[in-house]
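Give me structure tokens for this 580-residue protein.
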Amino acid sequence: MKPDVFFKNFELLADAPNGVQKLRELILQLAVMGKLVPQDPNDEPASVLIEKIKAEKKKLGQKEKNKGSKLISSRDTDQVPSEIPSNWEWTTLSRCGLINPRNDISGEKEVSFIPMTYISEKYGQNVEMEIRKWEEVKKGFTHFAENDVVLAKITPCFQNGKSTIMKGLKNGIGAGTTELHVFRPLNEFISSNYVLIYLKSPDFLYNGIQKMTGSAGQKRVPKDYFSENPFPLPPLAEQKRIVSKVDELMSLCDKLEARRQKKQKLQSKLNSAALDRMLSAENQEEFEQHWQRICENFDFLYDNPENVEKLKQAILQLAVQGKLMPQNSEDEPASVLIERIEMEKGNCVKKRDVGKFQSAYRNDSEDEKKSPNGWENLVLGSCIELISGQHLGKDEQNDNGLGLPYLTGPADFGPLYPTATRWTEKPKALSKKDDILITVKGAGVGKTNILGMNKAAIGRQLMAIRPICLDNKFVYLLILASYDKFQELSIGLTVPGISRNDILDFQFGLPPLAEQKRIVERVEQLMGLCDELETKLRKERENSEKLMEAVVKGLLEGAATEKPELEEPIPLQAAAIQLK
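Here you go.
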């Protein structure tokens, strides 16, 4: 792809996943390869510029010796990383200026002090500063002066691209964090902004990561890499054109990023509002009206996977509110089902010696108004058996598959059914097939799954819900839909958790058994369509990434950009019709 084609499609490329960030990186890399702006044959070549810099260094070196400063000696570059324009030169920063120079001023003068936190990762960001007396900071800190270019040398600051130009320093002098390398350009021969572009370019950072030394968490980029790495030097006039173009494109990136964020924020806000209106609908007619509006704007609301997740949650809420499908007056009412539950609880006590169940259920007038015909309002404890998990010591567990699986939390939950990494021959709390497991301790409070194996031991982070005379998948949907409520109920900062009573006293609407089964069937159908939609949206993202990669390859390698094989367009409107 030619640069002019790239610029014409700039905004289109910005819409790719993480597109703006990739564009920023590409701009910086093209800049130091001589591919961002055209060369001008009338420019004084960089070879002449290097000779001027050498002459200046000789003069400056004599002066600096009197001040006790040292000039870093340069060395020849044995290999060059890539081809550059004919009027450019490969050199090093040490040949073009001073590396880590020291300042010598009166201790009473006020200067700028800059810790690492004030140095930005973003190109073009102004540096913040504190004001100190020079005598307070001249020892034990890095020295720099106005227009010096600094680079963070320690992990992870280096990998994140922390580097900047020191501008607006108090009295033109400053000091700061010791974790910096400093480059001081000579007179006007080198543009500090161009050097900053080089230090932030992806290749410089990537190659520098490979050169870092030291222990984990304390790795640093050596001074030699900073000062002696091959540095592509353009003519001075072209340096200025490059900086101007980079500034222009980075400003455009800022606008595109702001526009994208605004769009995403608007999408999220409208999506939430539309779903809230649908969830709060007072009758079927109002519900249909709000759902129709969602369908009409489906392409806008659901063009990314994150918003589809909100749609899934709305489906669950509609399901447990009885709004997902109309009621059938011929269904046996939930009041009759409650009588069977009470009888079964009595039988369970006699047969299994399980102790007393919670028998009371609530049917207050406010909730009754909200419940569909044929439904009843209960507390969960009146229609389940609740098994609390028990902790097993290390000597009671094994990792060789002996005994029963031992599940301790949502980390053991697979995509469909819980999986196991530990086993035990001394189970204390047992869950059986089709029990609903709920996490009651830790950051995952409220996360749930259905046990797919015959039996399993459960740790204290879990409880097992065993429905009585109810469709266990409906109860599973109820717990899924109530995740946020359980999160709100959890207490404790270090290890948040919910109690048995939080589960037993949980109020919900109970549909007739036949409607429970219809709800489960409909939810499974709709979730399948949502999963399909998410898959297609992710495929679209992959397509955009492939296209972006092809563009980057074409620009950096100078090759013709081949159009990658892409998936078919996403039929979002068709998906809306299916969901309806």
